Amino acid sequence: MKKKISIIMSCLLLLLTLSGCSNGGKGDKEKENITVEDKITIGRYVEETIDFPKEVDPDDYISLTVTPYGIIELYTYNNFGFYEKYVYTDKEWTKENADELQVFNRTNTMRITDVFYGEDGRQYLLGNSTGYKNAFYRLSDQGEYEKVEIKKFEEKYTDLDMFYRPVIIKVLKNGMIAASYLRGEIEVYSSDGQSVEAELTSSYDAKITVEENNLYYTSQNNDELLTINMETKEEGTPRAIEIDLSNIGILEYDSTTAYFCDTSGIHLNKEGSSLWETIVDGNQSSLNMPSLTLSKFIVGAEDDFYCVYQDTNKAVIKYLYYDENLSTIPSVELSIFSLTDSKTIRQAIAMFRESHPDVFVNYRVAKQDQGKYYTYGIEDPEQTVTDTDYIKTLNTELLSSKGADILVLDGLPIDSYIEKGVLEDMGSIFTPMLENGELIENIADNYIDDGKVYAMPVRFKFPIIYGNAEAVNFAGSIKELADYTKSNQEIPLLYESNYRALAAWFLLIYYDQILNDKNVIDEGMLQDFLEAMNIIASNIGASDDAVLDHLGKSTGYVEYGYWVSAVGDVHKKLIQSNIGLMNGIADFAIPLVAASQWKGTYNAMNQTFAASALIGINSAGQQKELAKKFIQLLYSEEVQSLALEDGFPLNTKAMDGWIQKDQSIGMVLGFEDGYEVRADYPTSSLRKKIYEKICSLSKPMMNDTTMLNMILDEAERYLRGDITAEQAAKNAVSSISTYISE
Amino acid sequence: MKENRKAWAFLAPSFLGVIFFVLIPFSDAIKRSFKEAMGGKFVGMDNYMNVLHNEAFRIAAQNTSRFIIICVPILLLLSLVLAVMINNLKKHRSFFKTSFLIPLAIPVSSVVFLWKVVFHQNGLLNGALSVIGLEGYDWMSTKAFPVLVFSYIWKNIGYDMVLWLAGLDGISQTMYEAAAVDGANAWKKFWYITLPGLLPTVFIVTVLSILNSFKVFREAYLIAGAYPRDNNIYMLQHLFNNWFTKLDIQKMSAAAVMLALIIVAIILILQRIDTKVDRKLDIE
Fold this sequence. Notes:
The complex is a heterodimer of chains A (about 750) and B (about 280). Chain A is α+β, with helices and mostly antiparallel strands. Chain A contains 22 helices and 37 strands. In chain A, helix 10 (about 480-485) runs parallel beside helix 12 (about 525-540) and helix 21 runs antiparallel to helix 22. Chain B has one domain: MetI-like (MetI-like fold), CATH 1.10.3720. The interface between A and B is medium-sized, with 26 and 24 residues.
């Protein structure tokens, strides 16, 4: 009996399990009626560029706003200093009368920086007056602007030489004004500008918005959306935020829906729901384009959006609307794999998407969290997954012919990939470019092997030494530098450094000086190298854990090109020189000023350069032709001319543009003790000299991190005094020979 | 027939597991060992020849063999001594049994952390040595091989001891009683009763110990990384791991096939010896 019951129960269980997999009651006939189209998810947001009115230069943009009646208005100023107003209807701009604004024309001391409508239906202006002091105006019923005196605007930050300026300013239905300031301060004022006690705090960049009389703001940790009715002072129920709001973005509220727009996309949350839905992916719009910075986000009346971006020095308007006839994800996918993020690649993706709307570019960055930058040879102690783990995952994909179409080869075993035939010869792309002189020859030539091109850097960086001319002139080799240091002990040659970071820099720069005639690491030469390095390490007071903050665990300054404290110390003449990795022309500004204190100079070190984003095509990729088109765009003048702080362009025309272009940029580097180094963007003659240095670069930096780390391990032990230079060189060569023999 | 069906039913799940997770992947490895890494071009025995001429393979194979030759006998001997001692205990037998099994339950990463605390240049061992006036070593860098041998024995001794104890349980107590009546001392009892009685267990303990010795790579890798400073602990698994990172799947497959053949050969030899010894004992 028991046996029968158990059989029956088992059958029942099986039946229930299988029924759970059914389609919920659709009959066979209905199943047959399902077409291919039904299986494709339909509908997605499409982005369009809204061109400025023909007579308006995008440089002259002031504000884009939406009226209480849902009309889009554009405010600009013309060459004569007068303000202009345009209305956008039926995809056309119509110029409208803006006489009332002319009281603020260029003869006035106040310059309008923003125009918007409050929830009370009135128009408001925010502007800058003398000394960058802010002013706030309201358009009265009589059609005149009346100043709203907000005391806070008259005050300066206690620790900064600048007046308080609202990050966001909004007006509620009852005329109250809500303003947020940096460091999370939120203040509410009455309609006449008097402060109202509110005691509200938000996250650092204080994201706020208003709807009717409700003020919405994010909590200090960006994990809750809080609300308060400023009329009744009633607080609403906090809504959990399940998306990452750490990026700078804009919060909006419309009817019952909260919107958040940032580089990752547009996300919404409906009242009563705890879910945040991403309706626009940042990668599939201009939101994640590195050259653009979101400055305005407007929610339209028909589930559409307007985004205003600031490009280098002009505004760009993008319109996003929902097209219900397009498939949610484009049918063609071009995949790109990279260990680390590259701004230039992101930029090219956004531009490629504009010309190929039916292609989904899937950019996979293995190491997503790039909050902290580490100098060469120093590993991120918080990294839980190693580069090797990512490489193994990629290798598994490559072996099953599922790897990405384009591989960014930085940190990947390039030689092995070439040997195994993983990489496609890109000669058909680059040979004509080289023949036409479109690429910087002295850099690109290093990546041509027997007429074949398997990898090519998108950009490049190069190390310079700057400061005392004598020291700089001795930087041709580490031995010369060590000899110079030995006879000039009074002032340290460089900023004090961590052993490993120092060794990493010298090895990368002078790597060719440990190679023998057969291009193999020579034990004797490595020993001499280590001994020379030890002389410099002693001179600068290097230690095990010195100045990781400045050299190793930088807050971005390593990538920016120079070590902050070090540049100050060169300027103060506390150290003779400093080494910096140059990403662009602007990076030279402050180092050159620091060097001038010594009546000194700068020089490229050992003609070495570092490739930034080495591109290769997967020979087994599904979209090889599309990959080639993408790469052509990547190396085009259009993409390469943008300065994205990730290296110099490889495109000659883009490089010429960089060298020719004058920029009136002033830079100030301030230190905690109040010390400042001020500099201007390098002049034309300086830029030409920089170009000469670029033309001298001929040696790609060693990119084998395994080998680098083997030498670093031993160099570190030697510099620490644990072993002799001879032993260190012997150990390193022994490990390397095993590695090579593999 | 019915009994057979039952047996197959019980065997089926693990047999399927072996097919899907061992035999099919291994047959793929065999296939790859005769082909280029990518593209699938047949290259005959080239990959095998490349591996055999590979310097790193030779170093790794030597180190791995040395490790097995040193560790397995020591482990067998020590665990047997422990098993016999515990078997003779009248009290607290299960307490000791459990104590020696604890290392098996500790995660490898924790074990490695423990060894780093003990064997680091500024670790506990060197601290203790300095107290008695002796100079310490950078154990993890220069004496990594003995540390690894110690680690393997420490971790596996309990497991082997349990296997020996199972063998000891199979020896009839009446034989010991009869020997005692005949005036045999403890040593004679061990030599003439225990040892021959354990011979059938030797085969399985040896095979399992050899197989377990391959798992020591986890410790070696966590202690010294992909390229150990002390070349003596550069094992075959280091090489396989590095080959995979470099996408040298063809070399890896060829070496894996050779390794599998060697292991099977060792097991067959041991089995043959075991059968011969069994027969000899049966005749006696």
